[in-house]
Design a protein that fits this description.
Blueprint (H helix, E strand, L loop, with lengths): L1 H5 L2 H17 L5 H37 L2 H6 L4 H21 L16 H10 L1 H16 L8 H27 L5 H24 L1
Helix pairs in contact: 2-7, 2-8, 3-5, 3-6, 3-7, 3-8, 3-9, 5-6, 5-9
Length: 208
């Protein structure tokens, strides 16, 4: 049965649909993806690796929370939802400030206050877009005709791999800007643009 499922055209169609949907919905600009790009540009790929791993594992934790219904249970508490929204917005604003004030890469790179693994993990679980996007992808995959053939565990594994791939691509995109950040003026302008974009995408995720 497993061998037949492997070569079944319907299974491949569902898998392709799941990958495509996750790439478009989860891979679009948002607080986590923009922050990975911004941190990669401000601190270089090596200096951003710990933060990116935190983002990835935090987003996978969000995936599991959505899949198990934990998040739905939390947001059902009326007084908890605004508290979570304010806390996540405050933390993302703090991260935007760190990005905006990051020094040029050539200026004391070892002394720069680089965002840590914990910082990435906290932003990922505080990211309002992650819950909406992952819930949309997971619900869409579950409601598709015959989607049950893929299995919940398989869908979770595919989405987890997509989370890794999506953030790796955004990190590489940010690292491409790192070459421009050796000059103080270019560094300040690009960091400010990334910080402003991070704030904007957060606001859109909160109020859309």
């Amino acid at each position: 049965m497993a061998g037949q499922a492997l070569f079944d055209l319907e299974t491949w169609r569902q898998l392709l649909g799941l990958v495509s949907m996750s790439a478009v919905v989860m891979g679009s600009p948002g607080p986590a993806t923009i922050s990975v790009t911004a941190v990669g540009a401000a601190f270089g790929p090596r200096g951003s690796l710990g933060y990116t791993c935190g983002i990835v594992l935090g987003t996978i934790a969000v995936l599991l929370a959505v899949a198990t219904g934990l998040m739905a249970m939390l947001v059902s508490v009326p007084t908890l939802t605004p508290v979570l929204a304010v806390a996540s917005a405050a933390y993302i604003l703090y991260l935007a400030f760190k990005i905006a004030t990051a020094p040029p890469l050539a200026a004391n790179p070892d002394q720069a206050a680089r965002p840590t693994f914990l910082a990435g993990f906290l932003l990922a679980i505080a990211n309002p877009k992650a819950y909406v996007a992952i819930a949309a992808v997971f619900a869409g995959a579950s409601s598709a005709s015959g989607a049950g053939e893929l299995g919940v565990g398989f869908k979770l594994a595919v989405l987890a791999l997509m989370i890794v791939a999506i953030h790796a691509i955004w990190l590489l995109a940010g690292a491409a800007f790192a070459r421009l950040l050796r000059q103080p003026v270019a560094s300040r302008i690009i960091n400010l643009v990334f910080a402003a974009t991070l704030v904007l995408t957060t606001a859109l995720a909160l109020f859309s």
